[in-house]
Amino acid sequence: MTFRQRHLALPVVVAIVAGCIAPLAVLVAFSFYEVEDFDLIPAFSFRAWGDLATSTTDWFLIGKAVLSGVATTVFTALLGFPVALALTRLAASAKGLAIIVLLTPLYTGEIVRIYAWRIVLGGEGLVNTLLLALGLIDEPLKFLLFSPFTIGLVLTYNNLPFMVLAIWVSAEMVDRRLIEAARDLGARPVDAFFRVIFPLTTPGLAAGSLTVFALSAGEMLTPSLLGGTSGATAMALVDNLFGTAFDWPLASALALALLATLFLVASAMAGLLLRLKGARAVIGRA
Questions:
Q1: CA 98 to chain CA centroid, nearest Å
Q2: What is the dihedral of CA 62, 66, 69, 71, to 10 degrees?
Q3: pLDDT tens string for the chain (286 positions)?
Q4: Interhelix angle for 248-285 vs 22-30, to 10°?
Q5: What residue segments make up the domains of the chain, in order of their start?
Q6: What is the DSSP string of 3-66?
Q7: Model-level pTM?
Q8: Closest by CA position to 163, among listed 97, 104, 220, 102
């Protein structure tokens, strides 16, 4: 790397150090502190890590975050693939409009979207009112709001645009002649998808999956405001420990454990997708 290249990379390095490495270093340091009379004492204590290691609640919430992230990723991928492929078939003039419509939910704040869903799914909301008017139900459906179903639905809705955009970018780069060649050689549409389209769009699927997983696993507002008694999250506990409980060492240890767990799961997902891409490529050449 030349001096000029190092000079150009300097702002990026400074941003990474200041925005990522330094905060993590602070969390690591705080995790070994002690709290006495609402004062942080640098005592190099392992108390917080010991409490974390023996807390079934903390690890349950970490596992819940992982499960929520994986489930949301799977659902958005299943829904996003057909939408992304449909976007590639639109005329150039229509693609811009389609992307605007796709991104419309992101133009409003998260709080606005959450309370809109509460209005739609509530006991007297649009869905229950319509079902009652059609005579399909005798009383409002309770599971539509303040339940794991609600959390999964809204997380999928909020994160679907990120998955669709990532897959769409990869799908746009697929050479149409490869698909036509596969069809000419007798491949059925499903075979053409799994042997041509899917392997070539795996990078987009990987990018979308990692994005959706990180956003949904670390989500706090949606589960808290729409999940009811099932809305407890590791992020909410971290927020409570830093705020009301003023147990910064345990909050730091929990945050680091959550970050490490999510990083390991995300790395495993990326490795699985890359291996799947290689396997599909081998099948395609066979």
A1: 23
A2: -130
A3: 565 667 777 888 888 888 889 999 999 999 999 988 778 888 889 999 999 999 999 999 999 999 999 999 999 999 999 999 999 888 888 888 888 888 888 888 888 999 999 999 988 888 999 999 988 888 888 888 888 999 999 999 999 999 999 999 999 888 888 877 877 777 787 888 888 888 888 889 999 999 999 999 999 999 999 988 888 999 999 999 998 889 999 999 999 999 999 999 999 988 887 776 655 544 444 4
A4: 130
A5: 58-283
A6: HHHHHHHHHHHHHHIIIIIHHHHHHHHHTT-EEETTEEE-----HHHHHHHT-HHHHHHHHHHH
A7: 0.87
A8: 102
Please name the residues in contact with 57: beta carbons below 8 A apart, sequence gap of 6 or more. Answer: none
Q: Is 228 left (phi over 0), alpha (psi -120 to 50) or beta?
A: left
C-alpha span between 162 and 10 (Å, rounded): 29
**Domain at 58-283, CATH homologous superfamily:** MetI-like (1.10.3720.10)
